[in-house]
Amino acid sequence: MAAEIDKFVNIYRTLAQFPSISSGYILKNGISSLKDSITILSSWTQRNLERTKNTKFQQTHVVNLGTKDKTNMIPTDTSNEVLFAFSKSEKYRAVMREVQINEVKKFHLEIWNHYNIIKNISLDTLEIHGDVYSDVEFGSFVWSNNEDKLLYIAEEKVPKAEPFYKPKPHSQDIAPSTSDSSPEKPIKGAEYVYRQDWGEQLVGKCQSVIVCYDLTKDLLSVLTGIPSDLCPGQVVWTPDDDGVVGVAWKTTPRKLGLIFCTCRLSYVFHLNRAGEFRILSSDSEQLSARSPRFSPDGKTLVWLERGAEGPHHACMRLVKYDWSSGKSSTVVDTVEFGVKIGEPTCESTGSQERAEDESNIFYGLYNLSLPRRCWLNDNQRLLLSTGQRFETKSYVVDIESNTLSELQSPYRGSLTVLDVYNDILLCAHSSLVEPSSLLVTRLSPTQHINWIPLTLCQNDFNQFNVDYLNIDADYKNETVKSFSALFLGPKSAQAKSTPLVIIPHGGPHSAYSNAYSLGAAFFAQAGYAVLLINYRGSTCSGEASVRFLPGKVGDADVRDCMRATQHVWDAYASVDPARSVLFGGSHGGFLVTHLSGQYPNTFRAVSTRNPVVDLQTMGYTTDIMD
How many domains does the chain have? Predict the structure, then answer.
């Protein structure tokens, strides 16, 4: 037994050494005088098992797009850098650093030039705001176009509080103050006042503010003008630097969990230098808007939006807004079942019949954000990445013709756009059998792709296959008639030699794609076949799939999981049905407990992680009606 446990520990330790890509940046000044030579910065995250935390590091890559010669520098640890940003000309690099001193978080804002650090500000000593936000929902770190100001998001400063009965020295024992400014007077009895926050992974984030650092004046200030019932985030500068554009979430009547939930009421707003606030997205409809991005010429603003109701995540629309006229229109609309690529994407809802060749079918947008730099030089086309049934795919979107075309990947798996500069694309690729790697190319006018791999990850997955499963639901009188799954298993094995682990995803409105997963890789290396199920209700297969599940939770999704399991038992002779186990977390944990209860003699073991099973408690704390 001990030897078997050591074997599994060693498998996990080996797999944990594969880092995952978190961001990439094409350096403007890195495009040297040598023709086609560019410099790229990539940021990675790797599990550090000995320290029981993640290690973050940054790597520099120099590549010649013509000769494909490349050099990768030794990575440097950046674990305490929570945010960084280059100014437009790359004259400056700003770093937000978080350090722990006596278990208390401290934030330092650093400004670097090409030679040294020129500003180092301890934000805590100024007491202008609370903790800095570096999360994906609110976080921003943006230089102004003229490179003299920097924006970021932080927690609003909370007034000091003290007990009603706090003992104080007699007034005659206190020396008179010689300071012109009187200290902040604490609020009595407010030390235990409850403040709503934004929930999971955003605990302690109650009220955000926009902070501006003026480099020339060496001055920090909190921007005013945001209504008190809104929380701002995702801010960018306007083209003339006379104001900011961002996203503001409604906080009344109450804050509900925000992470992974694109259904919360929010607006794209404009705040000018005078503190005048106006909403740019529709305020007459109940919408949730996010991820505003200006075109390089400053004439067009785009963002993502959907209805602020229903499933926690669903199909998004891409909207463009003419900055001079103030008129907006839809570029990519929601997709019910799937449309053929090349058709206008602002009017068709597609067919519920599943196409035989799905390589040319588009199922809608499900991305939570757009790349920070997503535009091509023509100011007409932008790039984005979104889940599509089995993979994360990347697309070139034409905002004039309202059409899109797929960015062809050189490998099977998922392709994600990290950065776009001067028509040079930096992308990340991975699959269930390939950890993260970097690819770069220059997009030609004909969109001919000549990819150059920057990093190659040595792995031992050659003995495994990834299969895409289209499974017919085949239930009467139901609008969505199919769903998908991914099967990871050995290329060759004897009959009934391989146990099966069944893993439905959480959410429930999320989806698996053919992208690297430490958990799936571990099970495969440990000798299991792996079934990842995208039951009806999953995203990335059309809006109809997402909307199908509400009202049927615990029924339709359970039936789909069982049907997918039966499909694998029938299709793969190497799988042993008698050694099938269940593994799931959150809504996936809810499903595996249902499966084990509804089919008690079918599965050998069940593993649940934070399963949604306490109905008495959840009935008062969740906004999921089922």
Answer: 1
